[in-house]
Automatic annotation (TrEMBL):
Protein name: UPF0319 protein
InterPro entries: UPF0319
Family matches, as Pfam families: DUF2057
Organism: Paraferrimonas sedimenticola
TM segment ranges: none
Keyword Signal: yes
N-terminal signal peptide: 1-20
Recorded family membership: Belongs to the UPF0319 family.
């Protein structure tokens, strides 16, 4: 039995692509798109790892956190507009993204307006990245109900922003460089989003219901979550 397990494990390891790399993110960030493809996530389980291949990549993310509300006992959600990072991945490497800057963990509302991030490799060495920001707006539930959504959908904008030729998106602008060095890349993304992603004709009631369910899940305590999961399983 042991020999069989060893052989199976070795075969699995050999079958893994040699060019695979992995990007890790903390709980307060969310994947949206990778190289023009939407990253499917679940509101029940946070996706903190994303497998990427060797070479240049553009990854759309969002800052998404719960912070204590000064006027009530409930936490409130702070979300940024989608932003895009671009960097070149090495085969077999693990990369770790985290927030940076003076506003991170101190003033979440201000930080969400223009999130600053950094990426390090498995040896904690800084990785050269460029960061670009979108101007996509979130469609409110009220606008969805009355059928009015004049803005580009945020998720569509994120996907479109990562779909541009990846090899031209990675500029020689390290995270330690002055902010002005990344300005050209930052300015380019809104234009891409406006031309490549058109507003959705209809987002669907199910999407909005999921957003509300996710909100209340994040607000609930552990006991309430367990009770809800027990009820949900019984409905299957």
């Amino acid at each position: 039995m042991k020999h069989w397990l060893v052989r199976t494990a070795m075969a699995w390891l050999i079958a893994l692509p040699a060019s695979a790399a992995t990007l890790h993110i903390p709980m307060n960030f969310q994947y949206l798109a990778l190289d023009g493809k939407e990253v499917k996530t679940s509101f029940l389980v946070h996706t903190d790892e994303l497998d990427i291949g060797e070479g240049p990549h553009k990854i759309a993310l969002r800052y998404n956190d719960l912070v204590a509300d000064r006027f009530s006992d409930m936490d409130r959600k702070v979300r940024s507009k989608p932003f895009v990072i671009a960097f070149v991945a090495k085969a077999g490497e693990n990369y770790y993204l985290d927030g940076s800057g003076e506003l991170y963990n101190k003033k979440p509302d201000d930080y969400a307006k223009r999130p600053e991030v950094q990426v390090v490799d498995s040896n904690k060495r800084p990785v050269e990245i460029t960061t670009a920001y979108t101007d996509a707006e979130e469609a409110t539930i009220f606008k969805a109900l009355i059928g009015e959504n004049p803005h580009v959908d945020a998720e569509d904008a994120a996907i479109a922003a990562t779909a541009v030729a990846t090899t031209t998106a990675v500029a020689s602008a390290p995270t330690t460089a002055p902010a002005a060095a990344t300005a050209p890349a930052a300015a380019a993304v809104p234009a891409v989003a406006a031309t490549a992603a058109q507003p959705k004709a209809a987002t669907g009631q199910s999407d909005r219901a999921q957003e509300m369910l996710q909100y209340w899940w994040e607000q609930a305590d552990e006991k309430t979550r367990k009770e809800f999961l027990s009820w949900a399983v019984g409905q299957l």
